[in-house]
Amino acid sequence: MALSHTCDGCGATLGAREDLHRESTPTGRSWYCGYCRMPIPDSIGERLSHRRDGSPTDRR
Fold first, then answer.
1. Residue 44's pLDDT is what?
2. What is the pTM of this model?
């Protein structure tokens, strides 16, 4: 299982929730690249939303 996803729009490596933008919709959530707002597949967004980048500001 891959630990990251490469954005099709800007080429950024998305590897944690800090790299994502989430929008709530009537049918659930939609996930977007946090840098260029290109939509990413829901399954990838959900998987990455549970990962953190490990920076000192993460609260576990």
1. 92
2. 0.76
Q: Which domain holds residue 18?
A: 5-49
Nearest to 30 by CA among 43, 18, 42, 19: 42
Q: Mean pLDDT, the chain, as a whole number?
A: 85
The 3-state DSSP class for residue 25 equals: strand
Domain annotation covers residue 13: yes
DSSP letters, 25-49, are ETTEEEEEETTT--EE-HHHHHHHH
Looking at residue 60, its pLDDT comes to 44
Residue 59 lies in a domain: no
Distance CA 26, CA 28 (A): 6
Q: Is residue 45 part of a domain?
A: yes
